[in-house]
Design goal:
Blueprint (H helix, E strand, L loop, with lengths): L2 H33 L6 H18 L6 H18 L6 H12 L5 H6 L17 E5 L3 H13 L3 E5 L2 H10 L4 E5 L1 E2 L4 E2 H9 L8 E5 L4 H9 L2 E6 L4 H16 L4 E5 L3 H13 L3 E5 L5 H8 L3 E5 L7 H10 L8 E5 L4 H10 L3 E4 L4 H23 L9 H18 L3 E8 L2 H8 L1 H18 L5 E6 L2 E7 L3 H17 L2 E3 L2 E3 L3 E7 L7 H17 L5 E3 L2
Parallel strand pairs: 1-2, 1-3, 3-6, 6-7, 8-9, 8-10, 10-11, 11-12, 18-19
Antiparallel strand pairs: 4-5, 13-15, 13-18, 14-15, 16-17
Helix pairs in contact: 1-2, 1-4, 1-11, 2-3, 7-8, 10-18, 16-20, 17-18, 18-19
Length: 544
């Protein structure tokens, strides 16, 4: 059974279980309404009735019972009026009782008329990227193709537009890099690409290269789907920088969302729907363990149900905000509350946004994905090195600590790699700092491209980098870093008319029982790196 079929089956099982529990829940509501006629039982019955109606209003729609959820919401609003002090009129109570008795109607008919929950289809992650290079200058084509292949991409070169057109339609690439002018053919690539885009199942991002700097050339490129435009003579590393920027958006780790809701069945439904959309969600109904969950999971977004017994969502949001470590994590309330004043009070105390129950699956995925993406963009702006886009020194050290804690708790393997560019000061002194920056950016691109989405890599300082590889043993780490070392050694850099190559050295430290501090792994990796340097550089060595 594939992933989406499995998720669909689990969603259907949740829906069936919810439907099986509904008759007993509706019977309990009717009993509570009967208790309202007894003065001694009224206060407790009213509080329970309001809580149960609130849960029903928030969950029924997600499990396919939209009408039931709407009816429950109307009854909840009446119960809230009585709790607020409105006198309980016996005539109105009889009407209320009839409405509660009628709740649900023909549940089977409502289920038959509702489609299965939306399960978003997610594309499998590609191991490499197919790039078409349309360039009639063989020297430029060779340089671009060779550089992209060193970064692990699948590249095909076309010297004419005509030769590319059939292949683009037969096997659309993930990316295109195109010259604008093809003089011998008497054609311009933007016009041809724009026509091709209209016949493709999805637009293909394009980077155009040209000697032209006029407005018309840029305008034509935009119409053809350009995401980048570079003027010759071509700076290949800058072109790769632009290309990698777009790839990183699809290569990044799944967004992480923490859901706290006392209705675990509904929370599990949310979790499965988000999983189908490529979002990693964790759920809990226990506010008391919130800090354990935050430290272990490091979410991009926290979703809090407002109406929870013991500690409601507003109070829990305030608890989170009291801890300085979690001031940046966005908090969104899940609630069927429609009162504008009450929402304003909730946001004034803590929290950043509201999502109104009931949520359709599509609304849930869209709302969560956009908020989590925005959160990660902000974190990246604060936590990442401006030149390379890699994690800064403090953040990569923190990542070592996080992954070590996970490994100690759950078992498994963990490797930490410390990497350094050989003779980098000499490169800066000989070719200048701009050339040195190109080299730094190139190794950053290569590391991001060759490492897994679950790995973390940071710029530790200057020309030194650290990679954190969870669920990766020392032998696997050695194979990975040997691949990186060889690919990097083959990249050709240029400074003016001079071409040069750069090598790297790396040290690997692997977790073993007895290691309980991140500093131990970093020190062992550093010692292994020192050994690689003293043994002649351009090599990868193990620690203890």
């Amino acid at each position: 059974m594939d992933k989406n079929a499995d998720i669909a089956a689990r969603l259907q099982a949740l829906r069936d279980d919810y439907a099986a529990r509904l008759p007993a829940e509706l019977q309990q509501l009717r009993k509570l309404v009967d208790d309202l006629t007894e003065p001694d039982l009224r206060a407790g019955a009213l509080a329970q009735l309001n809580h149960r109606l609130h849960k029903l209003a928030g969950s029924a729609g997600s499990f396919g019972f939209t009408d039931l959820g709407k009816q429950a919401k109307k009854l909840e609003l009446q119960a809230q009026e009585w709790i607020a002090g409105t006198p309980l009129d016996m005539g109105l109570l009889r009407v209320f009782s009839v409405a509660v008795t009628a709740l649900g109607g023909d549940l089977q008919a409502e289920r038959r008329n509702k489609p299965m929950p939306l399960v978003s289809q997610t594309s499998p992650q590609k191991t490499n990227t197919l790039i078409y290079v349309l360039e009639d200058d063989p020297d430029i084509a060779d340089e671009v193709c060779m550089t992209l292949r060193h970064f692990g991409h699948q590249v095909e070169h076309f010297a004419t537009i005509a030769s590319a057109e059939t292949e683009v339609l037969r096997r659309p690439p993930d990316f295109m890099i195109c010259d604008i002018m093809f003089v011998e053919e008497g054609r311009e690539a933007p016009e041809a690409v724009m026509i091709l885009q209209q016949h493709l199942p999805a637009p293909v991002p394009v980077i155009f290269v040209s000697t032209r700097t006029d407005f018309e050339a840029y305008h034509a490129a935009v119409r053809a789907g350009a995401v980048g435009y570079f003027v010759k003579p071509l700076d290949t590393i800058r072109l790769v920088d632009c290309f990698e920027y777009y790839l990183d958006r699809h290569r990044s780790a799944p967004h992480r969302v923490l859901i706290i809701d006392d209705d675990l069945a509904l929370a599990e439904h949310y979790k499965l729907v988000l999983k189908a959309a490529g979002v990693h969600a964790e759920i809990s109904n226990n506010p008391r363990i919130i800090f354990d969950l935050l430290h272990e999971f490091h979410p991009d977004l926290v979703l809090l149900d407002i109406n929870m017994p013991g500690c409601n969502g507003i109070e829990l949001a305030q608890v989170i905000r009291l801890n300085q470590d979690w001031l940046r994590v966005p908090i969104t309330y899940l609630s069927s509350e429609q009162d504008v004043e009450k929402r304003a009070v909730a946001l004034g105390r803590a929290g950043d946004d509201f999502l109104s129950k009931p949520l359709s699956d599509r609304e849930l995925v869209t709302a969560v994905s956009t908020r989590a993406a925005r959160s990660r963009q902000l974190s990246d702006a604060l936590d990442r090195d401006s030149l390379t886009g890699l994690l800064k020194h403090s953040r990569i050290k923190e990542q070592v600590d996080i992954e070590l804690s996970r490994t100690v708790r759950g078992g498994g393997e963990l490797s930490v790699v410390m990497l350094d560019l050989d003779h980098f000061k000499q490169i800066n002194d000989t070719y200048g700092h701009p050339a040195g920056d190109k080299v730094i950016k190139a190794i950053a691109h290569l590391l991001r491209q060759r490492l897994r989405k679950t790995d973390a890599v940071g710029r530790y300082g200057g020309e030194e980098f650290v990679a954190v590889l969870p669920r990766c043993g020392r032998d696997e780490a050695m194979m990975l870093m040997e691949d990186v070392r060889q690919r990097f050694r083959d990249i050709s850099f240029s400074a003016g008319d001079i071409n040069f190559n750069v090598s790297l050295s790396a040290g690997i430290a692997a977790y073993r029982p007895g290691i309980d501090r991140a500093e131990q792994l970093l020190q062992e990796a550093d010692a292994a790196l020192y050994r690689a340097k003293t043994e002649g550089r351009n090599r990868v060595c193990f620690g203890r």
